[in-house]
Design a protein that fits this description.
Structural class of chain B: mainly alpha
Number of strands of chain A: 0
Number of helices of chain A: 13
CATH class of the largest domain in chain A: Mainly Alpha
Number of domains of chain B: 2
Largest sheet of chain A: none
Helix content of chain B: over 70%
Distance between the termini of chain A: 65 Å
Order of helices and strands of chain A: HHHHHHHHHHHHH
Helix content of chain A: over 70%
Number of domains of chain A: 2
CATH topology of the largest domain in chain A: MetI-like fold
CATH superfamily of the largest domain in chain A: MetI-like
Strand content of chain A: under 5%
Oligomer: heterodimer
Largest sheet of chain B: none
Radius of gyration of chain B: 28 Å
CATH architecture of the largest domain in chain A: Orthogonal Bundle
Order of helices and strands of chain B: HHHHHHHHHHHHHHH
Number of strands of chain B: 0
Shape of chain A: globular
CATH class of the largest domain in chain B: Mainly Alpha
Structural class of chain A: mainly alpha
CATH superfamily of the largest domain in chain B: MetI-like
Number of helices of chain B: 15
Chain lengths: 313, 301
């Protein structure tokens, strides 16, 4: 290994500032595009009637937050995200758990099945969303023609405001399955095989084994997935744009991210509202994360306590 | 008359007893159990795959065949004209080129910047390292939506609105990737670093010749995630890109939908299929890597 003159110079003259040379591009980008925006967004959220063009504002206060919580669209956004989460998170997780246990059987040819299962993971919502939009089409969509076999009347999935949330939920479940399945599958595969061998010696049925071994062992992973999916349900945006070209057929399907996007695009006073809404989103994410940490702790302690009580008995 | 006679003769009790017997056999018999498992897997895989199948056959049909009732599940008349029309009459190639440019530059720049930072934070003596890492750990919880409000005005002030650079710069300093890389660099023994330094290798040489090759799996995973995120990014381009010439694929695909709902389905499907192909190739070639990376990240939380 021969060093060039430049490298020797580098090694001898700059031992003190060398780490900063390695770090400086990263620090520069983080300061400009991560740290500064956070501070700026927080301060913007409290500047009332901030004018995007002149930079004037009307005092510091909670005006923006009062404004968004009075706004019908923002209330609608929180309601929709909650309804969406209540449906997508549990249904998606149950289906993923089922898929993961099927894939865990280690049958031959699972590679092909895996490919089919995990394909939605890499596809952009816009491209595959157009297919869904076509399948949801009220007049000649494939979904309605399949449903008509069971005697269901034509449903206007995209135009009828009563069904638009269901439409988004169906798509949401389909698109959330691959990620959850991969994570659950790997958690399943990391469970020690000894437990199952012992359980089989005790003549446990496979359902009993699933309930008493698999499920409790996977609980930490399931909790993480619940929260990851919960957070992503606040961020629904792409499919709204593709399916409806807006927040639902009658502006009835706002989400927090859509609200932020709209406030940023409309009017010169929208920035303050957008900043306030993004702070609210952050508070949701933060409290979800804290709750996750807490639940995990309680769960792990519970396990330890169980082990201890068994040992004492 | 004749049909009602046969219906009367049908014995339901016997039928159910038979079904029960068959079901019990299925559950207990391992070979039939396997068949049931395969059937279940096939059915569910088919359900998950169905939209992709529908995309493919819709892109291959004439528009008049797409609006028939019931729809053609197995198309008889196949045409490739949709692809030709889309490539000739729309700016799809332009969007594709933009996406390729943005994605590749983004991957290279992000990797370069994050590898340098992760190296400094693991092997070099940085004063205040714990503080820097603590700040980084706080930054990863922040939702990206908190940042876009200000980043949008930063981009305007930098004069980068409607410029492809605006789609790359905000995401180069990825805290998340630095933390992942740091975890992987920490595994590499400090003894090797010391030995390399004593042998006269510069930090630079050690980093690119030893450390980076050692962390290949992590780096490939980061390339994949970064490429996916950049390729599929949608909200941010919609904010900062104004003209048709600078749109990336997801945003550009939206132009296929007119103001009213009369989108040309067969053309939209053909364009969507073309848009999916690069990521499909990436996925099929790196499937094992991707799945491993996701499962590692997910179980660690």
């Amino acid at each position: 290994m021969k060093n060039t003159k430049f490298e020797k110079f580098w090694d001898n003259i700059f031992p003190k500032i060398r780490p900063w040379l390695f770090l400086s591009p990263f620090i520069l980008f983080v300061l400009v595009f991560s740290v500064y925006p956070v501070l700026r967004s927080i301060s913007l959220a409290f500047m009332q009637d901030y004018n995007r063009l002149t930079g004037n504002y009307n005092g510091i206060g909670w005006g923006n937050f009062e404004g968004i919580f009075k706004s019908r669209d923002f209330k609608n956004a929180i309601l929709n995200s909650s309804l969406y989460a209540v449906m997508v998170v549990p249904i998606g997780l149950v289906i993923s758990l089922f898929f993961a246990s099927l894939l865990n059987k280690r049958l031959k040819g699972t590679a092909i099945y895996q490919t089919a299962f995990f394909l939605p993971l890499v596809t952009s919502t816009v491209a595959i969303g157009f297919v869904w939009r076509f399948m949801f089409n009220g007049n000649y969509g494939v979904l309605n023609s399949i449903l008509s076999i069971f005697g269901v009347d034509k449903i206007k999935w995209l135009e009828d405001s009563r069904y638009s949330l269901t439409t988004i939920v169906i798509y949401g479940i389909w698109s959330s399955i691959p990620f959850s399945t991969i994570v659950l599958l790997s958690a399943m595969q990391s469970i020690n095989k000894k437990y199952y061998i012992i359980a089989r010696m005790d003549n446990a049925s496979s359902f009993q084994m699933f309930k008493k071994i698999t499920l409790p062992m996977m609980m930490p992973t399931i909790i993480i997935l619940m929260f990851l999916n919960l957070i992503s349900s606040f961020k629904v945006f792409d499919e709204l744009q593709v399916f409806f070209g807006g927040p639902g057929p009658y502006s009835n399907l706002y989400t927090i991210v859509w609200y932020i996007y709209e406030q940023m695009r409309t009017g010169i006073y929208g920035v303050g509202y957008a900043a306030a809404a993004s702070i609210v989103l952050f508070v949701f994410v933060l409290s979800a994360t804290l709750l996750l940490v807490l639940i995990r702790k309680v769960w792990l302690n519970r396990g330890k306590r169980l082990v201890r009580s068994k040992r004492n008995a | 008359m004749h049909s009602s006679d046969t219906r009367k003769k049908f014995d339901f009790n016997e039928f159910f007893a038979k079904v029960k017997k068959i079901l019990l056999q299925i559950i207990t018999h391992s070979k039939t159990k396997k068949i049931v498992l395969y059937t279940l897997l096939t059915v569910f895989a088919a359900l998950m795959f169905f939209p992709f199948y529908w995309l493919l056959i819709s892109a291959l049909q004439r528009s008049e065949d797409l609006t028939t009732l019931p729809p053609n599940f197995f198309p008889l008349r196949i045409t490739f004209n949709n692809f030709i029309t889309v490539l000739q009459e729309s700016k799809l190639l332009r969007y594709l080129a933009n996406s390729l440019i943005v994605t590749s530059i983004s991957v290279v720049c992000t990797l370069f910047v994050t590898i340098l930072a992760a190296f400094a934070l693991t092997k070099l003596k940085v004063p205040g390292r714990t503080i820097i890492i603590a700040i980084m750990l706080t930054l990863i919880i922040l939702p990206s939506e908190l940042l876009i409000v200000t980043n949008y005005s930063t981009i305007i002030q930098l004069g980068l609105q409607d410029n492809l650079a605006a789609l790359i710069l905000p995401f180069v300093g990825s805290v998340y990737y630095v933390l992942i890389l740091r975890n992987s660099f920490l595994v590499s023994s400090d003894k090797i670093y010391a030995a390399a330094r004593i042998d006269g290798a510069s930090n630079w040489r050690y980093l690119w010749r030893v450390l980076v090759p050692q962390s290949k799996p992590t780096i490939i995973a980061i390339v994949l995630f970064n490429a996916l995120a950049s390729w599929n990014s949608f909200l941010w381009p919609m904010l900062v890109i104004k003209t048709d010439e600078n749109k990336t694929l997801p945003f550009g695909l939206l132009t296929f939908v007119g103001d009213d709902d009369r989108m040309k389905i067969e053309l939209t499907m053909a364009a969507s299929l073309i848009a999916l192909i690069p990521m499909l190739i990436l996925f099929l070639t790196t499937r094992k890597f991707l799945i491993k990376a996701i499962s590692r990240g997910g179980s660690k939380g």
